[in-house]
Design brief:
The chain is of the alpha/beta class and 333 residues long. The chain has three domains: 7-172, Spore Coat Polysaccharide Biosynthesis Protein SpsA, Chain A (Alpha-Beta Complex), CATH 3.90.550; 175-253, no CATH class; 261-333, no CATH class. Helices cover 43% and strands 20% of the residues. It has helices at residues 20-26, 44-51, 65-75, 92-103, 175-195, 202-219, 227-251, 258-273, 278-291, 296-299, 325-330, and strands spanning 7-13, 32-37, 56-59, 80-82, 88-89, 110-119, 122-123, 133-139, 143-145, 154-156, 160-162, 167-172, 307-312, 315-319. The strands form three sheets. Strands 1, 2, 3, 4, 5, 6, 7, 8, 11 and 12 form a ten-stranded mixed β-sheet that branches. A hairpin with a 2-residue loop joins strand 13 (307-312) and strand 14. Helix 5 (175-195) runs parallel beside helix 7, helix 6 (202-219) packs antiparallel against helix 7 and helix 8 (258-273) runs antiparallel to helix 9. It starts with 6 loop residues before the first strand and ends with a helix.
Length: 333
């Protein structure tokens, strides 16, 4: 009887302190565990080093998902690898099925898994999330990720199969977490479109976002998910909208500083929410406006009628408000 092939468990991570313990315990079946870290700034690496010394940590600056994943694949010493995300969990039956498949020396070189999508720790059975699946088990000698910046695809040289057991995908803890990740995808997708010389039009800014909301909420029965269904459809719509905002910014040959954009956005949000921190947010907006004026366009979609927000230290700060009720509602102003 031939020996069962060994398995390497791979993951790309950054700031996963909330997930890393559960993920590494879940991957204990693997003969080798490798994580490629994009220089986490939280306690992720401390947790791994102190509680999971057997895990190999390799750090690499993040450029895009495909390169990061292919880099991890090259580090594996075994041909069979798993590539689960840090927020995905495999059931005991799923682990058993996975190990039995590899031990049987199948003719398939890659296996799909169906994923149950969770939002705020609640399963989403509608809105398109119930159709989610991905390849998470494959032979590294037969597979390679495409060069897409986002929504990377695994190019498989051979047959594929599918696991019977469903894995649980605890994607987003709350609305802010979901929104942050979708905006990251929007930026990467905008870069792809920019490389293809795609020019944004009114169709991209208005029709596509509206259809995305309609698709997730109505066509795919997202309304059956309750209030979470509304939130998900809304964020997916805004994800499409922001993709073309970023694309338009790229065509203007500007490279806004992402950190300044985040700080400026949060400052304006606090200011408008009237939390009592108005003076602090006012100062932040004034400073960010002075040193990073190019980010004003990305903070809000401008319209011809500008509104003076405030005057401070001889600086007149002009607020560029969203053009539509939908976007004003989204930005909570």
């Amino acid at each position: 009887m031939s020996e069962s092939p060994k398995i390497s468990a791979l993951a790309i991570i950054r700031n996963e302190e909330d997930n890393i313990r559960a993920y590494l315990r879940n991957m204990a079946f693997a003969d080798e565990i490798i994580v490629v870290d994009s220089y986490s700034s939280d306690t992720t690496l401390d947790i791994i080093r102190s509680e999971f010394p057997q895990v190999r940590i390799v750090q690499r600056p993040f450029d895009d998902f495909s390169r990061q994943r292919n880099f991890a694949i090259d580090l594996a010493t075994n041909d069979w690898v798993t590539f689960f995300d840090a927020d995905e969990r495999v059931t005991e039956n799923g682990i058993r099925e996975l190990l039995e498949l590899v031990a049987s020396h199948p003719e398939e070189v890659a296996f799909w898994v169906k994923r149950a999508f969770y939002y705020a720790e609640k399963p989403m059975f509608y809105g398109g999330q119930n159709q989610d699946r991905a390849i998470r088990l494959f032979r590294k000698s037969k597979c390679r990720y495409s060069h897409k910046l986002v929504h990377e695809q695994l190019i498989v040289d051979g047959k594929t199969g599918i696991l019977k057991e469903i894995i649980h995908h605890y994607s987003f803890k709350n609305k802010a977490d979901f929104l942050g990740k979708r905006l990251q995808y929007s930026q990467l997708r905008a870069q792809e479109l920019y490389q293809k010389n795609t020019k944004p039009t009114a169709f991209h800014f208005y029709i596509k976002p509206a259809f995305r909301f309609f698709k997730h909420y109505i066509i795919e029965f997202g309304f059956l998910n309750g209030s979470q269904g509304v939130s998900l459809a809304k964020i997916m719509s805004q994800h499409v909208y922001m993709r073309y905002v970023y694309l338009q910014q790229l065509h203007r040959n500007k490279n806004p500083n992402n950190e300044s954009l985040t700080i400026g956005y949060e400052a304006k949000r606090v200011f408008h929410n009237q939390t009592g921190l108005g003076n602090y947010s006012r100062d932040l907006v004034r400073i960010m406006n002075r040193f990073f004026p190019e980010n004003n366009y990305l903070l809000y979609n401008p319209k011809p009628a500008k509104k003076q927000l405030f005057t401070s230290d001889s600086d007149t700060i002009i607020e560029k408000r969203p053009t539509s009720w939908f976007n004003r509602k989204f930005y909570n102003i």
